[in-house]
Amino acid sequence: MINSLIVATGLLGLVLLYLLAQASGSTSLLSDHYWLLLGLNALLGLGLALFLGRELLRMRRAVRQRVFGAKLTLRMTTLFMLVAVLPGILVFTMSVQFLNRSIESWFNVNIETALDRGLNLGRSALDVLLANLASRADAAADDLALASPATYGERLPRLRAQLGVRELALFDGSGQLIAVTTRDAGPGDNAAPHLPATLDLDPQGRWQAILPTLDGKGLELVVAHRFDRLGWGSPLVLLATQPVPELLAADADAVEAARADYRQLVLARDGLKSFYRLTLGMTLLLSLFAAVAIGAVLSRRMSAPLTALAAGTRAVAQGDFSRQHPIYRRDELGILTALFNRMTRQLAESRSAEEAARAEIEANRAYLERLLTSLTAGVLAFDGELRLTASNQSAARILEADFDRLGQYPLPEWLVWQPELEPLVTMLYQHFETDGDWQQQVELTDDRLLLVRASRLPETAGWVVVFDDVTDLVHAQRDAAWREVARRLAHEIRNPLTPIQLSAERLAMKLSPRLDEAGADFLTRSTDTIIKQVAALKGMVDAFRDYARAPAGQMTPTDLNAVVSEVALLYESNPSVRLALCPHPLPIVADAALLRQVIHNLVVNAQDATLDVPGAMIQISTALHANGIVLAVSDNGPGFPPEMLARAFEPYVTGKTKGTGLGLAVVKKIIEEHGGTVHAENLEPHGARLCVTLPLSETKCEAVTS
């Protein structure tokens, strides 16, 4: 930007100097464009003054801001300004005095008098020639006044020769040409002469004038004389033309032009002085500007290596060791630059080694983090003050905790934010008071079981805790144990039931004929009781058998809505059972018979829960969710007791006075065999809902979704 401004200002200054040279040689140009040139000079001066002021303020501001090299730049710029200004002012003062005296010397009174006398002399010479021509024309007119008109053609050439004029022409009173004679007529003199348009005869009938020639290259003397012809009618006009000598005409024109130029110069004298002074002042400003520019450029060039080293030093202080500066000099600054480059290379090599070591540490840390992330078990690390130092995603998922917030507090204060962790926090705090590794199982407030293992870290006196949610494992072990118990019970109980039933039937058949009516009636009632209880035991044994053995389902594509509708036909006589099915087909791959058993068990469980509820309502609904197909059976009964809600699907857990307590356990087993899940929840203000989630058939997902 500064370089462009310097070039533009220099070009503008050269243009103004050229205009000055042109104007000094032409007073008319100076007179016509004085104000334009004055305005251009003033604008250039103002622009230069503003620029100089701006540069000085910028330098001063840089000095105040302690910019490196600013003081050196300002000092050198000031020196250059002084070097340029002091001689410039001296030259300016002397030049102004010289110009004033020179211009005043141009306007000498003797010169003006000489020009006037020269002009008068030329005019006097022309007047003498014109008077001489007029006297000769009078003589010719007197001669023609006495002559006959028939002799005009002969007399005019003789008279022209006698008078020594170039041309004689004779006109009548109306201006019509009568006769003409011309000496040395050239190719351009064929045109007939005519009376001048400015012809104005005086009372004596005479007129004379100095007119330019027809080709405009010279002057000619023209005299007109009107005379009366004696006895020949109206008067005639004699027109005599004589060219002015070329040397005399040229001298007269030169004197006239010189006098006009001199008068214009006199009028522009003050303007010349002002313009020359402004131009000299502008030259001084240009010199000052050049000095400032040169000083700034040179100071920057001289301080550039120091500034670069200062910037590099600041970069090194900020941790940037990549700076390498080119070496342009062989002096001390070059040596200093080379030493700086060597220092930055060594620092960069040290940093590279450090970064490589740090990268290796980060890689190991990232590997450990990936390892912790991939673990399904939760991992927590504590320091000696029992503050959390590390955790993985599984820990946050299992405990449903925000460790970003809990990590800001020691372990005992976690209960302020998540009181449900009280069993775990209490156990950890108690064991952290002892040394050695330990393992223990803890039950959370939501009935989940955690298996916790901890080891002390000898380096930091901290602890690392690993835990896993074993609720499903414990439930699976419990289910397996219950299935084994159910299998053995079914086997041990079923074997004697058939002989007992057969024996009771045989006793009734053998003894009834031998007893009287009262005895036979007693025997019949007793054997019927035995047979009914045996049948009830068989039903319980069948339930044990169904729970103990894995259902051998035949998985086929089916529509859940169709299966629900089939089961609902069995309860169409019960007005409390209502359907709310999804409007779209819900394709699944399942065993339709086992699904019917599931739906039947859920509906029966809801009916048992609403036996004593006025206005009982049971709703069977299906829906398509993002995670699969949901089958829900809800009722408006009393709901599950809070202590039984988490264990509702365990064997022999029931709130009813009758039944085996295996219905919901069988439901869970069948649904899990289908790859689904089931859970129970209480409704507000009362009621319960059992939700079954089954995976959607992959071959039908796209069609159903669309």
Short structural summary:
With 706 residues, the chain is an alpha+beta fold. The protein is built from 20 helices and 17 strands.
What tags apply to this protein structure?
single chain, 706 residues, alpha+beta, Beta-Lactamase, five-stranded antiparallel β-sheet, 17 strands, membrane, Signal transduction histidine-protein kinase/phosphatase MprB, cell membrane, transmembrane, NtrY
Provide a descriptive summary of the structure in words.
Its EC number is 2.7.13.3. It is a multi-pass membrane protein. It catalyses: ATP + protein L-histidine = ADP + protein N-phospho-L-histidine. Residues 300-352 form the HAMP domain. The protein is an alpha+beta fold and 706 residues long. It has five domains: 2-106 and 268-309, no CATH class; 126-184 and 193-259, 2-Layer Sandwich (Beta-Lactamase); 375-469, Beta-Lactamase, CATH 3.30.450; 474-548; 556-705, Heat Shock Protein 90 (2-Layer Sandwich). The protein is built from 20 helices and 17 strands. A five-stranded antiparallel β-sheet has the order 2-1-5-4-3, covered by helices on one side. Strands 7-6-10-9-8 form a five-stranded antiparallel β-sheet. Strands 12-14-15-17-16 form a five-stranded mixed β-sheet. The chain is elongated and about 215 Å long. It starts with a helix and ends with a helix. The model is unreliable at 700-706 (pLDDT under 50).
